[in-house]
Design a protein that fits this description.
- By secondary structure, the chain is of the alpha/beta class.
- The protein has one domain: Rossmann fold, CATH 3.40.50.2020.
- It is built from three helices and nine strands.
- The strands form two sheets. Strands 4-3-2-5-6-7 form a six-stranded mixed beta sheet. A three-stranded antiparallel beta sheet has the order 1-9-8.
- The protein is globular.
- The two termini are 14 Å apart.
- The protein binds inosinic acid and magnesium ion (MG).
- The site of magnesium ion has 3 residues, from loops.
């Protein structure tokens, strides 16, 4: 595996900028859900990094659960409207105040599919919190209630976002230089 510095075009969101914004989101969410029974639903795997930092900035009691959706037909380098559930929640969301936590919205198909599924289970409320919004790439409109950053149409990695499953661990969001990345 290559060292990421070999194909790093630029750092788009630094660790400091990201943590500052996540702290703001945490305050906003804490205020909005005060007195409610908040359940954070994280979409594996990319959303985990954002989730754990966000949880530490939310000052009200809340619970968390996880689900996974296959990337088949979904994502930055694919197209199509299919998303398949590969891991379901353990929590009964009936009557709960659910906040979906995701790393990035690209076409919007993943969020759309997850919202559609969760809505059939009658939560009291269902909202969406995303760290990154690639707004130019949207193919289907999705509601975004909490947004970390709007970013340009570039392939990014780090902080949960992978390049073929690697580089999720980097503590910042970086832009990929396609021409310097092996296998492209
Ligand atoms: P959507 O269904 O097209 O909105 O795709 C969202 C999913 O595609 C995200 O959860 C990511 O896993 C993946 N994705 C989209 N853009 C990028 C990117 O720039 N880098 C890494 N993964 C991405
Ligand atoms: Mg993802």
């Amino acid at each position: 595996m290559q060292d990421y510095r070999e194909f790093l075009a630029e750092i788009l969101v630094s660790t400091e900028t990201m943590q500052k914004r996540i702290a703001e989101l945490g305050v906003e969410i804490s205020n909005d859900y005060r007195g409610k029974d908040l359940l954070l639903v994280c979409i594996l795997r990319g959303g985990v990094f954002f989730l754990t930092d966000l949880m530490r900035q939310i000052s009200i009691p809340h619970t968390v659960d996880f689900m996974a959706v296959s990337s088949y037909g979904v994502g930055a380098r694919k197209s199509g409207a299919q998303a398949r559930l590969t891991l379901d929640l353990n929590t009964d969301i009936n009557g709960r105040d659910v906040l979906l936590v995701e790393d990035i919205v690209d076409s919007g198909y993943t969020i759309e599919a997850v919202l559609e599924l969760l809505n059939t289970r009658h939560p009291n409320s269902l909202r969406v919190c995303v760290l990154l919004d690639k707004v130019e790439r949207r193919e289907t409109p999705v509601p975004i209630d909490y947004r970390g950053f709007t970013i340009p149409d570039k392939f990014v990695f780090g902080y949960g976002l992978d390049i073929d499953e690697y580089y999720r661990n980097l503590p910042f969001i970086a832009v990929l230089d396609q021409s310097r990345y092996l296998g492209e």
